[in-house]
Amino acid sequence: MTTATRAPREDGDDELDSADSYWIDAVQRAMRPAPAVLDEYTIATTARSARGISGDLSDVTVDSQRGYATVTVGDVMGKGLASGVLAANLLGSLEVFRQEPPGEAVDAAETATRDHFERASAFATLFHARLRFRDGRIEFVDAGHGLTAHAHTTGAVERIPSADFPIGLQPAGIPRLPRILHLAPGELLLIVTDGLFELPDASMHTLTQLAIELRTATHLQLALTAFLEAAGPDLDDDTTLTAIRRHP
């Protein structure tokens, strides 16, 4: 039996680790979508990683000319560099096909990244949606994600279950199932990754309660950020929260 040993740390290793962490954090921050404040909608995202680089992915792209926004939230299994690379590959592929309807975009992105996920024996859960501004119609694909809550003006909250396998597990040749929901004035859609449930005392009730609170928050982005900062300095899992709110 061979026993591996760690090489002694040299002077300057701590500085290199610190520099690596700084640049990783800077790159991840640059990749996170900026808040989108539109005439009738606000779309906001906040995210934190558990280990330097995150396996979560998120994106918001506004196409004012066509009158819609594309919203993506996903989570590659595992943590650290490997999951971060797969997340970047998947997000990049979705960007290439972002002009396509959600079902076709996810099918094409999965085909483009299938070899990467198979070689890594990995998978990713994904919520990929297109919001149409004029009527609040949201066409979406939920690939094994199932962590979305729709907060209504009545105070009711509807959880949106998944209807498809995760990315990397969908049998080849079987198309994704696009679905439709409508976001009425005053309503909010909250999409999270499963890191939410690793926060202290969190449960599925946390998802629905957070959706209720965010629906009426004065400043959506600040409310999202404050919620995640309240979890403390160290997280057990990468965590991403994205909210779409239609103004009353």
List its traits:
248 residues, alpha+beta, Phosphatase 2c, domain 1, six-stranded antiparallel sheet, five-stranded antiparallel sheet, 31% helix
- Whole-number mean pLDDT: 87
Q: Mind telling me the C-alpha Rg?
A: 19 Å
Shape: globular
Low-confidence stretches: 1-21
Number of discrete helical segments: 5
The CATH class assignment is Alpha Beta
Number of strands: 11
Strand order of the largest sheet: 1-2-11-10-7-8
CATH superfamily: PPM-type phosphatase domain
The computed structural class is alpha+beta
Topology as a string of helices (H) and strands (E):
HEEEEHHEEEEEEHHE
CATH domain fold name: Phosphatase 2c, domain 1
Q: How is this structure best summarized?
A:
This protein is of the alpha+beta class and 248 residues long.
Task: Give a written overview of the molecule.
The protein has five helices and eleven strands, in the order H-E-E-E-E-H-H-E-E-E-E-E-E-H-H-E. It has helices spanning 13-31, 81-96, 102-120, 204-215, 220-229, and strands at 36-37, 41-48, 56-63, 68-76, 124-132, 137-143, 148-151, 157-160, 179-182, 188-192, 239-246. A hairpin with a 4-residue loop joins strand 5 and strand 6. The chain has one domain: Phosphatase 2c, domain 1. It is globular. The chain has 248 residues and is α+β, with helices and mostly antiparallel strands.
